[in-house]
Structures are given as C-alpha cells and as structure tokens.
Design brief:
single chain, about 150 residues, mainly alpha
Length: about 150
C-alpha cells in the first residue's frame, strides 16, 4: 500500500537518535534483569539456608519459605520482562542497520520488533490489573481474618 513511502533526511536522523536512546534503555533493562536474577537466586539460597538452620527463634520458621517464594517471583519477573526488552533491542539494532544500508526488508523487520514490544507491554498491563485486584482482595481478607484491619 505504501511501497513508495518517502522518508526524509530529518526523519532518518530522528529514527537514528531513537535507536541510540533505545539501545541505552535496553542496556539499563538488561542490567536490571541481571540484578533481579542475582537477587532471586540469592533469596532462594537464603530461604533454603534459613529453613535448614537449627534453633530458629519462634516465628522465624516462616521466613525461609517466604524468601524462597520471593526469589522465585523475582526470577519469573526477570524472565517476563526479558521478552519485550529483547524485542526492543532487536528494533534498535535493525533500525540502525536498515537506515545505514537502505535495506527495506531490515527496516520492516525492525518495525515488526517494535510492534511486538508494544503488544507485549500492553498484554502485561492488561494481565497485571486483574492480578493486582485479586491480590489486594486476598491480602484484605487475610488482614481482616488476622484482626489487623477492621
């Protein structure tokens, strides 16, 4: 439909700048994912260590499984956010190459990666809203049953 679409020099410059900033953003995101993974593994090991510790004071026996579960959650979250960050990284790499080489196919692939990034982000938001509501209800019920909230 738009096979004869013309891209002006200013637009190319803006797209290259966007690619550069996207690359910085993905580096930050990959660093965060690495830190989440390290923290997740550390919490799993800490939870296992605490659970196997002898003579824990009363009330501390539940901390080990909580740390273990939190570590699992961190690893899952890191894996979930890795997918869109990889699409954004691929967009950044391919858009820059396509603009330098004038490669239409590479340009289309880069836009496809950007589209996948936004689709995944919207999907994550749409899933997180009901999950947050359900977790809020569960926490409220737990607090009411424990006598914390009235």
């Amino acid at each position: 439909m738009f096979r004869n679409l013309k891209i002006e020099v200013e637009t190319v410059a803006l797209m290259k700048e966007s690619a550069r900033w996207t690359k910085y953003f993905t580096i930050i995101q990959f660093t965060i994912i690495a830190l989440l993974s390290i923290l997740g593994f550390g919490m799993i090991l800490g939870g296992l260590f605490i659970s196997s510790a002898p003579n824990l004071p009363k009330g501390f026996d539940a901390i080990g499984p909580i740390y273990f579960a939190a570590g699992i959650v961190y690893l899952i979250y890191g894996g979930v956010i890795l997918i869109p960050v990889m699409n954004l990284s691929r967009f950044s790499d391919k858009i820059d190459k396509s603009l330098n080489l004038g490669d239409q196919s590479l340009f289309e692939q880069s836009i496809d990666h950007l589209s996948k990034y936004f689709k995944y982000i919207v999907l994550m938001i749409l899933i997180s809203i009901p999950v947050t509501i359900v977790l809020f209800i569960i926490m409220t019920v737990i607090m009411v049953n424990a006598g914390i909230a009235k």
